[in-house]
Amino acid sequence: MTEPKSKAELIAEAIEALLTNLAGFTFRKTFDHVPKDLVSLPAATVQFVGLDQSFEATGGLASVRWKFEVSIYIDLAAKRPRKAEADLASALISIASAIRSDPTLDGLVELLDLEDGEKPEPIPEAGYYLKTISIVATTEEG
């Protein structure tokens, strides 16, 4: 008998599905871990990184903010950083648009937020451009 999936697993899988079905940008692959070799670019990883909880005055749990780190890997396109930057911008716009279109992940969460992360960084020795963002999913508990 299979064990039921945790809330973190369900949300991570829904974020991966959101990234897989973007309008205007296509990731060739999404991962739940950082792979050893990234050969199919553009790619993304989705990893659970923590949570914050808020409580009601009575002490009961009111909401949980589930935090996921999304790393976006863009082909450095023959050492053309401007092309990689344009592709990254397209990916970010598409992700933001998808979140605006479905801010509850089809009812799984109360609200989904996109938060900017680190400055984009070219990794020439690996052949990709890397940008990390955070996606935060809020659920009502109780």
Q: What is the CATH first-level class name?
A: Alpha Beta
Helix content: 10-25%
Domains, number: 1
User: How many individual β-strands?
Assistant: 6
Order of secondary-structure elements: HEEEHEEE
Mean pLDDT: 90
The radius of gyration computed from the alpha-carbon positions, rounded to a whole number of angstroms, is 16 Å
CATH architecture: 2-Layer Sandwich
Number of helices: 2
Low-confidence stretches: none
Identify the overall geometry.
Answer: elongated
Largest sheet: 6 strands, mixed
Seen as an oligomer or otherwise, the chain set is single chain
Outline of this structure?
The protein is of the alpha+beta class and 142 residues long. The chain is 25% helix and 37% strand.
Which terms summarize this structure?
142 residues, alpha+beta, STM4215-like, 6 strands, 37% strand
Describe this structure in words.
The structure is a single chain. The protein has one domain: STM4215-like. The mean pLDDT is 90. It is α+β, with helices and mostly antiparallel strands and 142 residues long. Strand 2 (43-55) and strand 3 (61-75) form a beta hairpin. The longest helix has 21 residues, at 81-101. It is built from two helices and six strands, in the order H-E-E-E-H-E-E-E. It has helices at residues 7-20, 81-101; strands spanning 29-31, 43-55, 61-75, 111-115, 121-123, 128-140. It is elongated. Helix content is 25%, strand content 37%.
